Every structure is written in structure tokens, then in C-alpha cells.
Amino acid sequence: MDKKGSGTFVRNALLLLLLTVIGLGVYAFIRDGSPPTLSLTPQSDVASFNTDFTLKLAARNVGIKSLSVSLSQDGKTVDFLQRAFTDKPMEHTEVFRLPRDAAFKEGPVELTVTVRTHSLLSFIGRGKSSLVRKLTLDLTPPRVTVNQGVHNVNQGGAGAVSFTVSKPVARVGVAVGEYFFPAYQQKTGDYFCFFAMPYDMLPTNFKPRVIVRDLAGNEATQTLYIYAIPKDFKFDKLNVSDEFLNDKMSQYSAQYPQEQSPLDIYKRVNNELRKINETDLRRIGLETANSALWSGPFLRLPNAAGRAGFGDQRDYFYNGMKIDHQTHLGVDLASLANAPVPAANDGKIAFAGFLGIYGNCVIIDHGLGLQSLYSHLDSIEVAVGADVKRGQFIGKTGTTGLAGGDHLHFGILISGVQVSPVEWWDEHWIRDNVLKHLNRQQ
User: Fold this and answer.
1) Which of 148, 150, 255, 270 has minimal CB crowding within 10 Å?
2) Are 236 and 319 in contact (CB under 8 A)?
3) Taking Cα atoms as reference points, which of 266, 391, 395, 380 lies closest to residue 326?
């Protein structure tokens, strides 16, 4: 290569290098100066000192440097949250509440969030984002007025209540211990709620409370004064045979492949899977209509003898050794093998399929959190979403799941919590304990 060609090559190389450096500089400028992203929930335009705000930040290129949050009202501004990030996180979530001690009053306020990144171009205003949210500060809790008529609830049974609320709400229902039973607003504007007294709750601990939270996060509660009627539950000893284990555990072997023996599978099914199924029932129990779909007493399986009852306490033995203890939460009804099973009342199919210990199972939603359960079925003749009428054929009795013989395990659930079905076969009980509240809403 001659000198002229060599010089041209060098100039082209230098030009390419210069363009590369400029390109990298432009990329770095764009990358380094891109603003952070932020989102703030809830989206409601009202708030209180109990509102939990969740702020999500992201600055994926250079990291977050600082966060500041202020609240303004009538010319007064308070910077109540400030964070400095030396570790340059790419993402950050901050949960906060408005400052209670800053003497803000009810009315319009302005919430301002400012986020900065570690951008080298911050001197020209790059790498910064702000969010301004105009809110109404609401510090007045809702008022609850309970309609009279709640008297007694049986241990392991159901109760009902209706009440009025003075303002729109975000969450409303009845709390019983660790359980929360949602209430549903009716055409009258009042709220109606089914709730349960769990079978294992001592009457002295049964203290149901109406809990109402408005859109701003203000909360009001009112205790329901109800007499809890204690119940004595039957005690049983059940022997688990090898014949039963060999026959039944094949249904669950794929779920517990690490277990070598049918007995080990059974221990996990009767305990672990039972708890999982309880969670499934709670989830399904929230998939309910906002109005009553049923009427009148619930239908019992025709020509069936009662076997195990609700709340029966069971000790399980294998070769003379106790291996487990569980509670039977339903009523077992035995008729002819593969007997037709009718829907206990009008409703909509909420579940139809295999459900762990219950085997082939149908759950009918009757609205307002009230559901009926039919398990151990040999066959299912309905599909999820279908409307059914009282007495309509939904399947046949069988031995699927943990059934030791052909029968129907029938259950009643309140927002997924199992209660005694016997009450729901009793027209007198329904009239005195449910309809007096429900008829107010018609």
C-alpha cells in the first residue's frame, strides 16, 4: 500500500472511530437521561390517614437516586417522605400513608411525588419524573346501622344480618375470628351478609363484628350481640384398612410421587390435601351472585339414610395405631348405588370436577356467598356456569375421593366456610333466621 492509500485508510479509521464515539455518546445521553417511571395506587381520588399508597419506581439504566413525597393544602406544603438510594436500585416499591401529625383538614389536597435517577445529565434536568395527584381528604368514618333481628347462632351453624351504611364503601362484611364474610348490597341500598360460627370456635369467643371501610380507608365496626348455642359433636374411631388404601390411593399417587406406600400417600391426602381443598372452597365461595338465587328449604337426597354427621370428630387408626385426626364437615347420605342426585335448590354451577378428598364434586352457588356441595359422585351431569333448578338431576352418587362406600357427602358453605346442612333443610329455621333479613331487601 502506497503512502496515499495508507493515509486514506488512517483517515477512514479515525472517522469511523469518531463516529463510534459520537454514537456511543448519543446512546449514553439517551440512556443516561431517560426519566424514571412511577405508578401510584390506589387510583381513587379520595384518601384518609389510613389509606395505604403503593408507589412503584423503575430506572432500569442508571438506578434510582432519590424519592420525595409532599402534601399541600391552602398554600401549606409538608415534605413527609424522603429517600436517598446509594445502592442505585433499578426498581423500588414504597408503601406510605399521609402524615397524620401535619394538621391537614378535610377537603382538597395535592400529593406530589418526585423521583430522580443517578443520571450524569441531572444538571440539565434529565433523569427526573414527577407525579401530581389531586385528592379529597376524607376523615369521616362511615356510619353503620344494624337492622334488628339477629338472636341465636348454633355452633357450626350460619347466621344472617342486614344493615345500612352512610356512604360508599370499598370493603364491607362480618368478621368472625380469622374469617371475613363479605356483605352484598341489595336493591334497597342496604347490605346483606351471611356469616358462620365455625364448628371449632368456643361460644365465648364468638364475637362477630360488622366491618365497613370507605373509599378513603376510614373504617367503622359494630359488634353483633348474638347468643352462641354450643353443640356436642359425635366422636368416631375409623380403621383404615389395606384394602381401602390399595383401592383409593391410586387417585393421588401422581400428586405424591415421592411417597412409596399407600399409607404414606393417605396420611398426606387426609391432612395436607384436605387443607388445600379448604382453601379451594374459600376461593370458590367468593365466586357468588350478589343476590339470592334460591328460595325455600333445601332438598335432601331422597330416600337416603343419614350416616356421618356434621362436626363428627374422627380418629383414624391403622393396625391399631392412631395415624390422624380430622373433622367431618358435611352430612353423609346413603341411598342406592349410583342414585340420582338432585340440586338442593336453585342456583348456578360454580364448580364441577375432581376436587381432592371430595372426588368428583359439584358446587352450586345460591348467591350471597351461600353454596351447596355434592361430593364422591360417580358421574357429573352439569357444567360450570349452568343454571339449575331445585330437584334437577346433577349427577350420581359414587365412591370417588376418600369415600369408603357409595354415598353422597352433602355440604353447605358460607363464603367457603362449611356449616351444618341440617339447618337448611328446616323451613322454620330459614324463615326465622334468614328470611327476616333477606325480605327487607326485596
Assistant:
1) 148
2) no
3) 266
Contacts 24+ apart (CB under 8 A), 195-198: 195/158, 195/159, 195/160, 195/161, 195/414, 195/415, 196/157, 196/158, 196/159, 196/414, 196/415, 196/417, 196/419, 197/153, 197/154, 197/155, 197/156, 197/157, 197/158, 197/159, 197/228, 197/419, 198/156, 198/417
| pLDDT, tens only, 284-299 | 999 999 999 999 999 9
Cβ pair 421, 408 in contact under 8 A: no
Domains recognised in the chain with CATH numbers: 34-137 (2.60.40.10), 144-229 (2.60.40.10), 235-441 (2.70.70.10)
* pLDDT tens digits, one per residue of 120-160: 765 555 688 999 999 999 999 999 999 976 679 999 999 99
Q: How many CB atoms lie within 10 A of CB 88?
A: 12
Specify the pLDDT at position 437: 83
Nearest-angstrom CA–CA distance, 88 and 117:
8
Q: Tell me 148's DSSP state.
A: S
C-alpha grid cell, residue 75: 398554600
What one-character DSSP code corresponds to residue 272? I
- Residue linked to cell 418526585: 114
Residue matched to cell numbers 328470611: 435
What pLDDT shows up at residue 29? Answer: 47
Question: Could you give the CA distance from residue 347 to residue 363 in angstroms, rounded to a whole number?
Answer: 10
Q: CB within 8 A of 146, min separation 6: which ones?
A: 161, 162, 163, 210, 222, 224
* Pairwise pLDDT comparison (378 vs 21), residue with the higher score: 378
**Nearest-angstrom CA–CA distance, 61 and 118:** 9
Amino acid letter at 433?
N
Beta bridge partners of 109: 135
Least Cα distance to 132 among 71, 79, 78 occurs for 71
Whether the full predicted model's pTM is greater than 0.90, yes or no, is no
Sign (positive/negative) of CA torsion 223, 435, 193, 207?
positive
